[in-house]
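Blinded run. Sample ID left blank on purpose so nobody reads anything into the name before looking at the predicted structure. Input follows.
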Amino acid sequence: MCETIRWRCYARVNDRRAADRVVGRLAARLDRPLRLDTYERYWKYPELAELRLVSPLESDSPDAALLAVLQSAWRIATPWALGAPGSDGEFDGIASVNNGSHFTVPGVEWMEFQVTDRQ
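Blinded prediction complete.
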């Protein structure tokens, strides 16, 4: 059973308060709760912050999980590049401004999701 969506996001924000606003906007776009797990400046590009986020999924099958996650992800950005599913049913996807993705939340430049059976 797939239980959790782990999101990693790089956003152009000045401080933690601005990052919280971005998370709030992302949560408003999703159909599920979203919790900020970690916030830190991105070492490679200090003007960006790395945000790690967590959402519950609670899906019974990998097929249903994939559909639910993609429906959520498409509310945030399009298009997404999907990775091959793992042997344990886990899968991931990436959207990036550099590769032509358009984000509905200002400031977000790169985002990844990973679906896992761990909470």
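Unblinding after everyone has recorded impressions. Residues 62-76 form the longest helix (15 residues).
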